[in-house]
């Protein structure tokens, strides 16, 4: 059954490469047939178990809101049936009290109220964040990138030609930043170069963050740093503690090898630490070392990261202090994490390894689009019950339930349909089953920040989630201006929305990231106030040039 549905994830394109200049076919026109994988159609496959998981999250947190109104209604109905005189007589004349009963009642009442308030999760506020912008001397255009790569002497013409073609359709503009060390003739992935690069971006972002928030480094109680490929000893978190002379009892964590979605994983860890440690600040730093993603070999699957990854870093200050309520920008509403690592294809679709010449690189599988689509489908299906309006949930769940029942009925009369249903690969067009209703996620959020991986990924997401061009504006323009900055890209996108002055009080922001593993993670924020255009932002001198027209993008 898997082979039967495989063609649905493929699309073909015939490309004219011109006249062959050398070799046995010199003078002949050449054509290339490209076979690409695309995201699976969410209309065709939505698993009921992920909807159940989302409702489990909702019910486990909302049971009190469901039972308390019922108790109030019952109590009000009982009391309302009595007149004032009858109520007074029952309370004072027909009941007998002693001091022990009264004290026991008040003790139980105080204990119940105390347990309720102590068990409530602390609200987590985002005070502010900063995104590092490298100096202009590190800025390169796509043509300059290819020429500098050629001058390094590490690539043959076929590899350079392949990278040039990828860049033309990447959606990346001519003002991104890369460390100059990657163009040296020697090995750029040294500990010295890695430390220098990460130190410059991390300290630059943190200096701006502490200045904007008027917080001393010694006030920070929790520090979480994520960088996927560069993990030195001492760790990057230790570098920050040493540089800023932070306090000795700080809870510091360093996440490595967790890909482009690690920024939200770091947020989740920081949230848990703040829930367990009251009256505290937490700093989350997300970055990637471009010098360690750079590959100087000939394997095309490993050359792809060269075309997309660029320098960047974000630093976020979180707080659980109630006095930060007034100055905080956002409150954290939900985090939903999805991990597909139990599947072998998902596990290996983004994989660091050596090529045939033992040159280390990051290999990108052809299965990436399909694997990412399944992880995304699981994540947003789980998130739906937590954020969607009740009307959207009702229509979605009703159509999904009808589809499941109809499929099961067909399976009892048709063994082949039963096998297809068990594999989750039945074709709805062939069987006539009603398509699931895909909820309108634009009703749940005012702003969307999708990890700026590549133009093709953003195109497929826009198509499959039925989004508008304006919904993907922040992601597309971040990709164009800064490239793929890995786990920090969702913060450059939020900085874009703030620089445009679009975030208003009560607005909900959905951050969606995905990366190796394969993982797909969501974070939902609610704006505490109208966010004014920041005085310091990576977009300050260029935001008026965006959004760029479709024709200006690669």
TrEMBL record:
Q: What name goes with this protein? A: 3-ketoacyl-CoA synthase
Q: Which residues form the active site?
A: 260, 339, 447, 451, 480, 484
CC per GO annotation: membrane
Chain ranges passing through the membrane: 57-77, 97-117, 250-269
Enzyme class per UniProt: transferase
Q: Which residues form the Beta-ketoacyl-[acyl-carrier-protein] synthase III C-terminal domain?
A: 446-526
Alphabetized GO MF terms: fatty acid elongase activity
> Which positions fall inside the FAE domain?
116-404
Q: Which organism is it from?
A: Dendrobium thyrsiflorum (Pinecone-like raceme dendrobium)
Its keywords, alphabetically, are: Acyltransferase, Membrane, Transferase, Transmembrane, Transmembrane helix
């Amino acid at each position: 059954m898997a082979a039967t549905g495989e063609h649905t994830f493929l699309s073909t394109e015939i490309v004219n490469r011109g006249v062959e200049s050398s070799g046995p076919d010199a003078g002949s026109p050449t054509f290339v047939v490209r076979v690409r994988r695309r995201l699976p159609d969410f209309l065709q496959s939505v698993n009921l178990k992920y909807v159940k998981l989302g409702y489990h999250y909702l019910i486990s947190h909302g049971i009190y809101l469901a039972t308390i109104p019922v108790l109030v209604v019952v109590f009000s109905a009982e009391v309302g049936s009595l007149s004032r005189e009858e109520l007074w007589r029952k309370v004072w004349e027909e009941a007998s009290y002693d001091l022990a009963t009264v004290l026991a009642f008040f003790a139980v009442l105080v204990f119940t109220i105390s347990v309720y308030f102590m068990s409530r999760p602390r609200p987590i506020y985002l005070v502010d964040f900063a995104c590092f912008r490298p100096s202009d001397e590190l800025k390169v255009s796509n043509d300059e990138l290819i020429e500098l790569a050629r001058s390094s002497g590490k690539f043959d013409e076929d590899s350079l030609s392949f990278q040039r073609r990828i860049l033309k359709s990447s959606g990346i503009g001519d003002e991104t930043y890369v460390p100059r060390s990657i163009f040296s003739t020697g090995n750029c992935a040294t500990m010295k170069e890695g430390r220098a690069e990460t130190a410059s971006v991390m300290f630059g972002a943190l200096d701006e963050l502490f200045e904007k928030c008027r917080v001393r480094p010694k006030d920070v109680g929790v520090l979480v740093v994520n960088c996927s490929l560069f993990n030195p000893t001492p760790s990057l978190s230790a570098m920050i503690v040493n540089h800023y002379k932070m306090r000795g009892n700080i809870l510091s964590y360093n996440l490595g090898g967790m890909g482009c979605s690690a920024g939200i994983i770091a947020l989740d860890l920081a949230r848990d630490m703040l829930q367990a440690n009251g009256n505290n600040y937490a700093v989350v730093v997300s970055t990637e070392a471009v010098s360690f993603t750079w590959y100087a070999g000939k394997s095309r699957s490993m050359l792809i990261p060269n075309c997309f990854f660029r320098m960047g870093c974000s630093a976020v200050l979180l707080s659980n202090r109630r006095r930060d309520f007034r100055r905080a920008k956002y409150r954290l509403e939900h985090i939903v994490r999805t991990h597909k690592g139990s599947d072998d294809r998902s596990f290996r679709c983004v994989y660091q390894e050596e090529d045939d010449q033992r040159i280390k690189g990051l290999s990108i599988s052809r299965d990436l689009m399909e694997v990412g689509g399944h992880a995304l489908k699981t994540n947003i299906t789980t998130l739906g019950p937590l954020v969607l309006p009740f009307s959207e949930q009702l229509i979605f769940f009703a159509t999904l339930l009808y589809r499941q029942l109809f499929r099961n009925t067909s399976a009892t009369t048709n063994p082949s349909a039963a096998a297809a249903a068990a594999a989750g690969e039945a074709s709805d067009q062939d069987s006539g089953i009603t398509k699931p209703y895909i909820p309108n996620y634009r009703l749940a959020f005012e702003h969307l920040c999708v990890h700026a991986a590549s133009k093709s990924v953003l195109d497929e997401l826009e198509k499959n989630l039925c989004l508008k061009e304006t919904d993907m504006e922040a992601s597309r323009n971040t990709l164009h201006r800064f490239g793929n900055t890995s786990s920090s890209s969702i913060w450059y996108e939020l900085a874009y929305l703030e620089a445009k002055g679009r975030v208003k009080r009560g607005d909900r922001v959905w951050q969606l990231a995905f990366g190796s593993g394969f993982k797909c993670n969501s974070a939902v924020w609610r704006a505490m106030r109208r966010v004014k255009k920041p005085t310091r932002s990576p977009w300050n001198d260029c935001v008026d040039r965006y959004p760029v027209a479709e024709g200006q993008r690669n």
